[in-house]
Amino acid sequence: MAHARTLAEALADDVLVLDGGLSNQLEAQGCDLRDELWSARLLADGPEQIAAAHTAYVRAGARVLITAGYQATFEGFARRGIDRAETARLLGRSVELGRAAAEGAAEQVWVAGSVGPYGAMLADGSEYRGRYGLTVAELERFHRPRVEALAAAGPDVLALETVPDVDEAEALLRAVEGCGVPVWLSYTIAGERTRAGQRLTEAFALAAGNDQVIAVGVNCCEPEDAGGAVEIAAAATGKPVVVYPNSGEVWDAEARAWRGSGSFDPGRMREWPAAGARLLGGCCRVGPERIAALAAALADPAEG
After folding, report:
1. Which among 5, 117, 189, 230 is least surrounded, fewest beta carbons within 10 Å?
2. What is the pLDDT of residues 235-249, one digit of tens each?
3. Has this prediction a pTM greater than 0.90?
């Protein structure tokens, strides 16, 4: 392997491919995720499945892996009778599993410790609304212990992802202060606003002068909304942009099923680096085949 670079160094020079949705790959492997802990349950019950999912994305061409920490919280595991010491160990395991898959790659692969929003712990879709009725200080107190546990495991970056509103973004940025790990900040959006309704220009401006933030962007959103958000994020911050939309299908909460056809288009995404995107991948329902197609499109922009 060539001389190891930090992710920030790599983003200054290259466009990198991020992985896709972890949960859909785990389901493709036969895992049952009908549980409040979702994919985080497998940190305790099936770590080998998480390792296999990470490896599938490395083989597809992903250069950055997001860990299985999105729905892993001290509060969530406590409801299963898992104490704080064991929860911290499981959070560390999420990073170790990503690192093991990265070490088997021919090229350098970076590991992003996932820090999901408060709403993910509630397991009721609140992350797509925000505005939980909590203060910034209360949200900071919720996030800080998990940030500390993940940082202690040594990821390359912390992915502050699927953030629905500016209050939670502010809380997360406070929670990571002094942790010693760079971060990216990624909102979930609808149109040109956060899910809570704030303008994206204002939302991204929160990170503009923060050197710990090495990238800003959007995830878990419609592909049609992501392209415009790349331009807004780059203009508001001057930072590299991370973007990983959903497949374009729509989740029917009542039927607990995905509806519609996908609109995730690697051919269209190859245009986004010109607007500032440096880290591109997929979120819900985007699997290794689509990530491989994205890697191919980015490697040869002249082809689709």
Report:
1. 5
2. 999 999 999 999 988
3. yes
What is the mean pLDDT of the segment spanning 253-262?
A: 69
Place of tokens 């900071």: 140
Tokens 């002068």 sit on residue: 209
Task: Convert the pLDDT of each residue in 286-299 to its tens digit.
Answer: 999 999 999 999 99
Q: And the tokens for 280? A: 């591109």
Distance of CA 120 to the CA centre of its chain: 13
Strands (E), 2-146: 16-17, 64-66, 110-115
User: What is the reported pLDDT for 104?
Assistant: 81
pLDDT (0 to 100) of residue 300 = 80
pLDDT of residue 252: 66
61: left (phi over 0), alpha (psi -120 to 50) or beta: left
Average pLDDT for 87-102? 97
Measured N-to-C along each axis, helices 84-103 and 136-152 cross at an angle, to the nearest 10 degrees, of 60
